[in-house]
Amino acid sequence: MHRPDGTVLSEHMTPAETRSASRRILSAARAIAARAGAGKITIDAVAKEAGLSKGGVLYNYPTKKALLSGLLDAMLAEHRELLDSVPERHPARTLRGHLETVLQSQEVDDDLSMAILATAASDPQLLDPLRGELSDDIGRILSDTQDPQGAMVVFWAIQGVRFQKLLKLPDGGADLRGRVIERLRTLIDELE
């Protein structure tokens, strides 16, 4: 079997084994980020955490950027699952899903998001999957309402909450933040 760079690997992995290894690698990277912060994610550390050889990690993710891209893809898949969990009868289902995604994100996800954003500063194409996902979501948001301006105001407010949380900016305190979140839920519910 060959790595993408042409290096011959002695291990022979089936497609199912490759998928399994990929999941183990991403899980290991998340565990490292949760324990020590995303800045501590290295190919060596991930290999050790996953119980794989460095070559096994490099086969699946030849660079740290590729690993971060894999983590972004996994986070987007989780976002889609959360969107799918919002009841279909909800009139602004995609907007509600975005709000819940922000509220349910854990500190490790925020830390990983910041690592991905930092890497994207030098390679903006890393965020192309996110751009595509958001474009699709905006299309659904706009088709779900007769008030596209109101829906976009709420969407942008949710994005503001997301970045306020990511950057750990002051938010006026827990009481005010809670009231603002309830107001956003009310605005979402009132959209037609």
Largest sheet: none
Note the total helix count: 9
Number of E-type strands: 0
How would you spell out the order of helices and strands? Answer: HHHHHHHHH
Provide keyphrases for this structure.
192 residues
Layout of secondary structure:
Blueprint: H1 15-36, H2 43-50, H3 54-60, H4 64-85, H5 93-104, H6 107-122, H7 128-143, H8 148-166, H9 174-190
Helix pairs in contact: 1-2, 2-3, 4-5, 4-6, 5-8, 7-8
Describe this structure in words.
With 192 residues, this protein is mainly α. Helix 1 (15-36) crosses helix 2, helix 2 (43-50) packs across helix 3 (54-60) and helix 7 (128-143) runs antiparallel to helix 8 (148-166). The chain is built from 9 helices and no strands. The protein has helices at residues 15-36, 43-50, 54-60, 64-85, 93-104, 107-122, 128-143, 148-166, 174-190. The relative contact order is 0.10.
Short overview:
The protein is 72% helix and 0% strand. The protein has helices at 15-36, 43-50, 54-60, 64-85, 93-104, 107-122, 128-143, 148-166, 174-190. Helix 1 (15-36) packs across helix 2.
